[in-house]
Structures are given as C-alpha cells and as structure tokens.
Write a structure and sequence with these properties.
The structure is a single chain. The chain is mainly alpha-helical. The chain has a domain of 42 residues. It has five helices and two strands, in the order H-H-H-H-H-E-E. The chain has a two-stranded antiparallel ribbon.
C-alpha cells in the first residue's frame, strides 16, 4: 500500500510540474527536453563525469543543479529578447536555439575526453 500511495504522489507531482511549466511558458507542447532544461542537466552531469570520474554519486546532484540553473536562465532570458523582438521570435529562440546551445558543449566535451576501452582478446572484452 505505501508503494501505491508513493507512486500516486510522484505521478501527481510530475503532472503538476508539467502543467506549471506549460502554463509559465505559454506553450502547450513545452516540456523539459524542448526548452533546454534537459540539455542543461546533461551538460552539468557530463562536467561532473569529466571532472570527478571516481565520484559517480555526484551525477544526480550536478544534473539537478544544472537543470535548475538552466530553467532560471530561461526565465530571465525572454525578458531581454522581448524588449527588442516579437514574442513569437522569443518563443522560437527559446525552443530551438537554447537546447542547441546547451547540448553542443556536452557533445563537444564527450568527444574531447579520451575514452578508456577494455582490452579485447579474440573479439571479446577481457
């Protein structure tokens, strides 16, 4: 019974947070992946993996902090854009370019970090 109640509580919290995000962004299709919050969390987790490879338990806190910083950045950014551009241009920039800007450093970091591969013997990892 406690697991069922916890699952219902978590589902309710996710539904409320999604509806709040869509209401704040005034976009019924907005989610964390479209607006760039996921890219910010992934970038922070990637930085944690590269900077502290032996401390794997730091990945969730780094990802959470990166997502929070990205969402705060997204909330402050449209005010600057709307002073000079139309509201539709600001929405397009928020939904297209912010995730791109967030995912590029993550992919670049993963590309530049040398990967350690296990030795291969007879086509199988040792």
């Amino acid at each position: 019974m406690p697991r069922i109640l916890l699952a219902a509580l978590v589902g309710t919290a996710l539904a409320v947070s999604g509806a709040t995000l869509q209401g704040v962004m005034r976009n019924s299709l907005a989610d964390a992946g479209i607006i760039g919050v996921t890219a910010g969390g992934g970038l922070a987790a990637t930085i944690a993996m590269v900077a502290f490879p032996q401390l794997g338990f730091l990945l969730p806190p780094f990802a959470f902090i990166g997502a929070c910083v990205t969402s705060l950045r997204l909330q402050s950014f449209p005010v600057f854009v709307m002073q000079t551009q139309t509201q539709n241009t600001a929405r397009m920039f928020r939904t297209v370019f912010i995730p791109l800007i967030g995912s590029f450093p993550q992919n670049r970091t993963l590309f530049l970090v040398p990967h350690k591969r296990p030795p291969v013997t007879n086509g199988r990892p040792c």
